[in-house]
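Z., the sequence and structure:
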Amino acid sequence: MAEEGKKIAIIVGAGPAGLTAAYELLKHTDIHPIVLEATDVIGGISQTVKYKGNRMDIGGHRFFSKNTAIMEWWNNLMPVQGAPSKDDILLDNNAKPLQKDGPDPQKEDRVMLYRDRVSRIFFLRKFFDYPISLKYSTFANMGFKRTVKSGIGYIRSQFSKLKEDSLENFYINRFGRPLYELFFEGYTEKVWGKHPSKLGADWGSQRVKGLSVYALLKDAFLKPFRGDDVSQKKVETSLIEQFIYPKFGPGQLWEIVADDIRAMGGEVRMKHEVRCVNVEKGKVVSIDCLTPDNTIINVPCDYLFSTMPLKNLVPSILGIDVPDDVYQIAKELPYRDFITVGLLLDKMKIKNETKIKTYAGRVPDTWIYIQERDVQVGRLQVFNNWSPYLVKDYENTMFVGLEYFCNEGDCMWSMSDEDFIAMAIDELVKIDIIDRDAVLDATRVKIKKAYPAYFGSYYKLDKVKEFLNGIDNLYCLGRNGQHRYNNMDHSMMTAMVAVDNIKNGISDKSAVWNVNTETEYHEQRQ
């Protein structure tokens, strides 16, 4: 409970942005934070799902940032174990498993591991580097005709630029039409359920920013001269090759943050769903929320930090007239939902044909992007390679995650767990990644509103922002709170900047909204 006379901040959501806000308030102000989480899970999409001793990372979370404050923040909570060298056990580079520390040492074992990122594309039943590299193997897998056609297409794209009014044109301008059609068109449509010609170019400028054929050539040339800075500030984000990772998955870090918040006197209340945001004279004065015992309680506050989807926030606001157009824009904001199928395997059919040493000849990939158009699975995670500690029996089993992108209520979302898992197994068998009898166990996890989408009413979002910014003590944070496809560090930065604004008496919220809108974002925290 807050001390009498202390100001109170309600924080909606116990994901990275919400928990960072609470932690920063406790560290840098006298404001008492109360985190209200609608579910019984810490971490939002950065949670780690536990299943019979195995752990699943939802979506895959590489811990790296070009922002020094974020890297220090993580390291203060979970120091990095070892040094970023090729002699570490990164992706089983020593070709042997790590020893376990006990049945569940998670809370005591607060360390990060250095990891090597190995991600590849599975297409034409072959492996390609991700992002696409300009190696002989790439051209050999593509074949002579595709290679020549792609080269001509790229040259043509450099002399005849298209207007970047769609994601399709964004990619064509950087890679040429043939490479776009091979490696971007089909996969992008899987992820978003829309053809790239119907998606905004600003998604590309945010997520892949400087990625291009030129960037690939530059990266290949400069790679031998780089040091061991895991933040890799001079490396295009999509080309990052090394990152740090919590020993027991991303959820471990956020569970630790929640525990630390409670230890410092803050509150984290689970299964508390915010229903109403009460505004008087241009300020939030309280919220109404549904508690675990199915009662509605009113919680007064001096500040409100919201990470809930704008689609839910705007209709919940009472005591102030919400303009019809603002209400409608928020209501129609598009999202993409997410399903992961976890498969426990005794082995995979595909073998390691790279030069990387792996345990028992397993593939070294953290992610495999499935570009094949005859299956619906979008990505395959190999949890053994994120951290050996995610897998209960690391030596004898492999735990993998099949990622599907869908819309809440559609046919994939509505399938029973049994039918969906059967479909997922069929797809991996079809493309020769596993044998059917290799499956030992399976589970399915559904995540709502995992990805804010960049089409439809998204292009009128400024009207919603203007309205919300007019509520003096309301701060919208994180991926869903700003309807922006942020990385985890970007979401954390929105919280840090908001707390800095309050601490320094800054009323202008533009810096909060501008996180991750520039090529280089907030290199130093102000």
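The chain has 19 helices and 21 strands. The first helix runs from residue 16 to 28.

Let me know what you think.
H.
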